[in-house]
Design brief:
The protein is α+β, with helices and mostly antiparallel strands. Helix content is 49%, strand content 17%. The strands form four sheets. Strands 1, 2, 3, 6, 7, 8, 11, 12, 13 and 14 form a ten-stranded mixed sheet that branches. The chain is globular and about 100 Å long.
């Protein structure tokens, strides 16, 4: 029986090639989009779950309370994990990471910078799963180790086993002991080089008295808890730990700390800690799920509309089958078989489109991951796709099957015509299609408007033609006065200064003792940066009160307007600020608020210190780890020549390190890369939605105009022009698009208003309602063109032929 069904379906597809092509094309594009989104969703929803102990691993988070101001961040002290493990039975084990700065690692003339490096406790491979390629993991606990990723190993040695090889970093030799496979893309913390924690010579707490050790937050700590651990029980551990080890010092510092834990698998989407790794955005997740459903719905609607519109053409077939003894159930099975067959062909074509998209387009880059469609390594993927075919075929085909199988045999043989209910349903489904299409178009336009606002918003400093050059090691930093003098002599370099943090991307908080309006010191969480004397001039930052830095370094600091407002200062000049407990400074100037961080966050209080390029007191182990940034204001003329000059001159001062530079504007744009990528993706899906809708509309218009040939002929005989007939045929559809635009505008308004909550500085949607008119107009224009192209042939045909055929 199934063979008969398949033979009938294939014969039907062959006979109506245009109908089959329209359906399969629309379904294939929808399937390809859903496959890509499905692969991405699977990747997103399984973050860190490749670790066998992921249900037992928790990340330790620190909540700092400073005078009622709560700040939550992922850093902890060095000893907290070990102490918790030793003193509390619930804590089974721990791992701590000390993230290192960017390292230049060299081997026989091959030099590469690596950002993802860390010192880690020796039990890391007992807690987190790694697949080893070279080296015995059992030896890790018994010796100093340096474990590197497969990508790292291939970069220097290709397919050769690098164990035993020695790379050089800042003059120090590092022996490779292990090589592990690259961590999965869906790991919240990824690294390429792990050093034994015992090898660290730069412990952040080493410069402070022992009683402050637990307050120096610089490590990432992960705890192993019992299976099915109730996270609420950790509150008692946190309170007990604080009372035993930190309460006394907390009173002295006028601060308190609460330890919290986050399940490993929840970190990517549910963590609210600051200074974190890049996290997932639930709104993106919901948005892409909605897009996938929308595209599937549009494709299903196409199939339903085309199938029901063709009812008159298939009525005779249904009537004859019923007269010959076919029951309704058999007919339903036949029509469902057709839709599943269409789904099967669409899936084959869709898989080809997915493979082409993954290879030929930047889809992985836009999604921020590495998707693959590999049935050999993931056979379950084929099973899920097969189930998807059945489900998709059933959903899209069930109504047409029920509708077509309900046609009475006598009415079918007496020139069957679609009923009013069928026509109304098709009109409703077309309305739904364009609600979806206009919604996605409006969302894309509003997102583009927000990104334009972000890129054009004044940041409080000049970002154009500003070059950031990285200087490494204390020896090079000692040469900054000479470097500045030589670079300033170049006519295309309009200004040179230095800073310790890149403007526009300042992370982290410092707890400083700051005088309130009454002169009483208070502990205040504050952003902090150190700059050269002429930093304000080079960056174009406005000084609103007091004076800037003088030629000779003194104990003066500058603050921003947000600090003045926060402290309630009536007269900020002369207020004391204590930095690191041993550096007393006085406020001598106030700068106008500028956006030192992303526009997703408010401008918080900021302290700007004078940075002196003096490294005489830096301990030897830390000298090679020092980093500073040159900030150069360049003339826009002949920038390549200026860059060449800079590279040649800086190589003379530091021949060991390559020339590292980045334009400030590029650095700032990276802050919004995920939003930009999302806008591009949503825009692409908007085009796909419209395209699929138009494919269906093209086919539907063809059938409806064919049924109205006699009416069109009479109108032409009565004097109607081709244009008037096309407008008549398009009028009803355009009314549906217009009605759908109203509903779509409300949906888009809500969606984008939710998306904009991520930004502290955002457009006002109410001031940009014209966007919805553009989205509606675009949809109406595309719709009219589609209907006009299909209607033109019949509108131009000889009316006599149409009347005779009737």
């Amino acid at each position: 029986m199934s063979g008969t069904f398949l033979k009938t379906t294939l014969r039907h597809i062959y006979r109506e090639k245009m109908y089959a092509a329209i359906n399969i094309a629309g379904l294939a594009i929808a399937v390809a989009c859903c496959l890509i989104l499905g692969l991405w969703l699977r990747n997103e929803l399984t973050y860190d779950q490749h670790n066998k102990k992921h249900k037992q691993i928790y990340r330790l988070v620190t909540e700092l309370n400073t005078n009622g101001k709560i700040d939550k961040f992922i850093h902890t002290s060095q000893t907290v994990g070990k102490t918790l493990t030793n003193e509390y039975a619930d804590v089974k084990d721990y791992v701590r990471f000390l993230a290192n700065r960017q390292l230049l690692l060299q081997y026989e003339g091959r030099s590469f910078y690596w950002d993802k490096t860390a010192y880690v406790s020796n039990n890391v491979f007992d807690v987190f799963d790694h697949e080893f390629i070279y080296g015995d993991p059992a030896t890790v606990k018994n010796s100093h180790f340096c474990a590197v990723s497969e990508s790292f190993a291939k970069k220097y040695w290709g397919s050769e086993n690098p164990v035993g090889k020695t790379v050089t970093s800042e003059g120090n030799g590092i022996k490779i002991t292990h090589v592990f496979k690259d961590l999965p893309v869906n790991s919240h913390y990824r690294y390429d080089v792990l050093f034994s924690d015992d090898a660290s010579q730069n412990r952040p707490d080493s410069r402070y008295p022992p009683k402050y050790a637990l307050w120096i937050q610089a490590y990432y700590t992960y705890l192993v808890m019992p299976e099915d651990y109730d996270i609420r029980n950790f509150k008692d551990i946190s309170e007990s730990f604080y009372k035993r080890h930190m309460a006394e010092t907390g009173k002295e510092l006028n601060m308190s700390i609460r330890l919290m834990i986050e399940p490993l698998a929840d970190i990517h989407y549910n963590s609210d800690a600051g200074s974190d790794f890049p996290k997932g955005n639930k709104y993106y997740l919901y948005g892409f799920i909605a897009v996938g459903i929308f595209i599937l719905l549009v494709a299903c609607i196409n199939y339903i509309n085309l199938a029901t519109a063709r009812a008159a053409g298939r009525a005779e077939e249904v009537g004859m089958r019923k007269i010959l003894g076919s029951g309704r159930a058999r007919l339903i099975m036949q029509f469902l078989g057709e839709s599943i067959t269409f789904s099967f062909f669409a899936m084959l074509l869709g898989c080809c489109l997915v493979q082409a998209a993954l290879v030929l387009t930047p889809i992985n880059q836009l999604l921020g991951t590495k998707l693959t469609l590999d049935f050999m390594t993931e056979p379950m993927l084929a099973v899920w796709i097969f189930l998807f075919i059945l489900g998709f075929g059933f959903i899209s085909g069930i109504y047409p099957a029920l509708y077509l199988s309900s046609i009475a045999p006598l009415s079918a043989l007496a020139r069957y015509k679609s009923g009013k209910k069928s026509i109304k349903l098709r009109e409703l489904l077309v309305l739904v299609q364009f609600i979806i299409s206009v919604t996605v178009i409006a969302c894309t336009l509003l997102m583009a408007l927000q990104m334009k606002y972000i890129y054009n918003k004044s940041l409080g400093f000049d970002k154009e033609n500003k070059l950031i050059v990285t200087l490494r090691t204390a020896d090079t930093i000692d040469k900054i006065p000479v470097i500045k003098k030589e670079l300033s002599a170049k006519s295309n370099i309009l200004g040179v200064s230095i800073c310790n943090k890149i403007p526009g991307n300042i992370q982290g908080l410092s707890a400083l003792m700051i005088d309130n309006n009454d002169g009483i010191p208070e502990q205040i969480p504050t952003k902090e940066m150190s700059v050269g004397k002429d930093f304000l001039e080079v960056m174009g930052i406005e000084l609103t009160a007091g004076r800037g830095f003088q030629e000779k370094p003194d104990n003066s600091v500058l603050v921003n307007e947000a600090m003045v407002k926060k402290m309630g200062w009536e007269q900020p000049m002369g207020k004391n600020i204590s930095i690191n407990g041993n550096y007393a400074a006085k406020v001598t100037g106030v700068v106008k608020d500028f956006h030192y961080a992303s526009l997703k966050s408010d401008i918080r209080p900021l302290v700007i210190r004078r940075l002196a390029a003096d490294t005489r007191n830096v301990p030897p182990p830390q000298r090679n780890l020092m980093t500073m940034y040159l900030v150069l204001n360049l003339s826009p003329e002949n920038i390549p020549d200026t860059l060449g000059f800079l590279e040649n001159r800086l190589k003379e001062f530091d021949p060991e390190h390559p020339f590292e530079f980045e334009f400030l504007e590029d650095s700032l744009n990276k802050l919004y890369l995920s939003e930009k990528n999302q806008m591009v993706l949503i825009g692409t899906f908007a085009v796909i939605c419209i395209f699929i809708s138009c494919i269906g509309l093209f086919g539907l218009t063809g059938f409806t105009t064919e049924q109205r040939k006699k009416e069109i002929a009479i109108r032409k005989v009565s004097g109607a022009s081709t244009t008037q007939i096309i407008v008549m045929l398009a009028r009803n559809i355009e009314l549906f698009v217009l009605g759908g635009a109203v509903i779509a505008s409300l949906m888009a308004y809500y969606a984008i208003d939710t998306w904009l909550t991520e930004f502290k500085y955002r457009i006002n949607i109410n001031e940009n309602l014209w966007i919805f008119l553009i989205a509606a107009a675009a949809a109406m224009a595309v719709t009219f063109i589609t209907v006009a192209v299909q209607s033109f042939r019949i509108a131009r045909s000889n009316p006599v032929n149409s009347i005779r055929q009737e």
